[in-house]
Amino acid sequence: MQTIISPSILSANFLRLEEQIQMASEQKNLWWHLDIMDSHFVPNLTFGAPVLKELSKVTTHKLDAHFMVTNPDFFVENFKELNIHNFTFHWEAVTHHDRLISYIKKNYPSAGISINPSTDLNIIPDYIFEKIDLILLMSVNPGFSGQKFISSVYQKIEKLQKIKKEKSLNFHIQIDGGVDESNAAQLIQTGATNLVSGSYLFSAKNKVEFNQRIESLRK
Ligand code: DX5
Ligand code: ZN
After folding, report:
1. Number of neighbouring beta carbons within 10 Å of residue 200
2. Which domains are assigned to the chain?
3. Active-site residue (options: 38, 133, 176, 180)
4. How far is the CA of 167 from the centre of ligand 1 (A)?
5. How many angstroms is it from 18 CA to the middle of ligand 2?
6. How far apart are alpha carbons 196 and 203 in whole angstroms?
7. Known catalytic residue: 38?
8. How far is it, in rounded angstroms, from Cα 105 to Cα 43?
9. Cα separation of 149 and 32, whole Å?
10. What is the pLDDT tens value at each position of the chain, 219 positions in all?
């Protein structure tokens, strides 16, 4: 399957959001990555339901919500009318992981878990991989776009690839942070199936270059 590219709108120009979203209207296998931050789990505050409600009206692409918040449970109920496809929460933020995953699965088509660069994959019990649709490996410390890629993420992708093969599982391996044309090919080769990219894509000077940059990540 073709790699899914998830442009992070955190790097978009918010005053021209609709126009920026339309740049990708002809793309296939593209999800919009929505970085929801609460200024508690991470030192930044972004956007919430009112913005996402408007955004969902101007795109047919899937919405991929990445919750960097201390209380993701609250958002499951409150965001369920927004047409979100994938709901990802941070493993570090939660105590009752299994219960939250079941709750997400009842309300959204896809459930994802995310771990920070310093979180070891071994803290996730194996059976959890059978329940989820996506695991997001952070390749920067969450909070901001435009940070430097942390290459220790490759070892985590390798471990996940092994688990997928051994258990014949199909969850997405999504990489988020510092992804650009210099590392995309190696990430895909190692096993990534979904690449988030913010500053690299949105620093394109026009629609043509934006789409060329998406293709450069898939190559
Ligand atoms: C960081 C966010 C990322 C970020 C990616 O906390 O989760 O999605 O916007 O931006 P770049 O690609 O610029 O690192
Ligand atoms: Zn993100």
Report:
1. 23
2. 4-218 (3.20.20.70)
3. 176
4. 30
5. 20
6. 14
7. no
8. 28
9. 20
10. 899 999 999 999 999 999 999 999 999 999 999 999 999 999 999 999 999 999 999 999 999 999 999 999 999 999 999 999 999 999 999 999 999 999 999 999 999 999 999 999 999 999 999 999 999 999 999 999 999 999 999 999 999 999 999 999 999 999 999 999 999 999 999 999 999 999 999 999 999 999 999 999 998
Tell me if 69 sits within 8 A of 75, measured CB to CB.
yes
Q: Which two tokens stand for residue 126?
A: 């194996």
Whole-number Å distance between alpha carbons of 30 and 51: 20
143 Cα nearest atom in ligand 1: 6
* Annotation says 180 is catalytic: no
Q: Which residues contact 139 (CB under 8 A, 6 or more apart)?
A: 117, 149, 150, 151, 153, 175, 176, 177, 178, 179
Is the CB of 117 within 6 Å of ligand 1?
no
- Residue owning the nearest CA to atom 6 of ligand 1: 142
The pair of three-digit structure tokens given for residue 172, joined into one six-digit string: 């997405």
Atom number of ligand 1 nearest to Cα 197: 12
107 C-alpha to ligand 1 centroid (Å) = 26
* Best mutation site among 153, 176, 187 for ligand 1 pocket (most ligand atoms within 8 Å of CB): 176
* Model pTM score: 0.98
